[in-house]
Amino acid sequence: MKTKYVSSIPVVIAALFFSILVPALAQELQLAELSKKLQLTEQQKKDLTPAIEQRDKEIKALRADTSMGKVQKLRKAQEIQGNFRNQAAKVLNPQQLQKLDALQAERRAKLRSEIMGH
């Protein structure tokens, strides 16, 4: 009986490790993608990081929320993206903002598809 518990310890440790590492890695990958597509400066990366973290936190909570209907979730997702855009507008130049708008349109379509179950 004891060996079953001992053999499951590495699995638990791995699960904890990935639950901590994966969100941070996802944020880094997302920042890297934005950095590449928008050609961000180091200062812009630093300034955008809190807004990206906040947006991702809110989107994750929205996906997990079972109390909202699909239309409510879609509206909330649009609000979250709008808030992120407003924060980013303070940091980006007009060309970068235009590119961000195009990226957000793609992201909206993806979220809409996920939320509506298509």
Mind explaining what this structure looks like?
This protein has helices spanning 2-38, 42-64, 70-89, 94-116. It is an all-alpha fold and 118 residues long. The chain has four helices and no strands. α1 packs across α2 (42-64), α2 runs antiparallel to α3 and α3 (70-89) packs antiparallel against α4 (94-116). The chain has one domain (2-116).
Record keyword descriptors for this entry.
single chain, mainly alpha, 0% strand, 118 residues, 87% helix, elongated
Q: What does the secondary structure layout of this molecule look like, with pairings?
A:
Layout: H1 2-38, H2 42-64, H3 70-89, H4 94-116
Summarize the structure.
It is built from four helices and no strands. With 118 residues, it is mostly helical. It has one domain (2-116).
The percentage of residues in β strands lies in under 5%
Separation, N- and C-terminal Cα atoms: 45 Å
* Rg: 18 Å
Helix content: over 70%
Oligomer: single chain
List how many beta strands DSSP finds: 0
Mean pLDDT: 79
Number of folding domains?
A: 1
Detail the poorly predicted runs: 14-22
Q: List SSEs in N-to-C order.
A: HHHH
3D shape: elongated
User: Sheet with the most strands?
Assistant: none
Class per helix and strand makeup: mainly alpha
Count of helices? 4
